[in-house]
Amino acid sequence: MGRALEVARSTPLGDVPVGAVVYDRQGREVAWGVNRREAKGDPTAHAEVEAIRAAARALGTWRLDGCELVVTVEPCTMCAGAMVGARVGSLVFGAWEPKTGAVGSIVDVLRDPHHLHRVEVRGGVRTAEAATLLRGFFDQLR
């Protein structure tokens, strides 16, 4: 989570500071991503999607079996769906997202029994640090 928080701090100005890091089966960092929706003008440019795309390129396959995605905030429905589609092995996230969270807060996309693939989940890791980063960003907007 420390690396994901570090990555989040490099988010382009104007984008919500979220960082995501993908690790392979051996625990080596494969790829990372930050939110770039504003920077790219792309509604799908969430940190998790950016990291999954970069990991697929780095590994030469869309199947991220055995990989772990670490992200600073609970993923939304789109990002959770991308994890299922990419066959990500496990997810670790920091702050809970009560408004849009799709890994337990609003819905639980990753552990839906209807999916062919389920992602192991561990949430609430270094929650206070991740929440402080987000709160600081939104306080500046107000």
Helix and strand element order:
HEEHHEHEEH
Please count the helical segments.
5
Biggest sheet architecture: 5 strands, mixed
* Rg for CA atoms: 14 Å
Tally of DSSP β-strands: 5
**What is the topology, as strand order, of the major beta sheet?**
2-1-3-4-5
Mean pLDDT comes to 96
Assembly level: single chain
List low-pLDDT spans. none
Backbone shape: globular
Helix content: 25-40%
Give the terminus-to-terminus CA distance: 28 Å
Sheet-strand content, in percent, reads 15-25%
Specify the structural class.
alpha/beta
Question: If you had to describe this structure to a student in words, what would you say it looks like?
Answer:
By secondary structure, this protein is of the alpha/beta class. The protein has helices at 2-8, 37-40, 47-59, 77-86, 127-141, and strands at 19-23, 29-34, 68-73, 90-95, 120-122. A hairpin with a 5-residue loop joins strand 1 and strand 2. Helix 3 (47-59) runs parallel beside helix 4 (77-86). It is globular, with a radius of gyration of 14 Å. The mean pLDDT is 96.
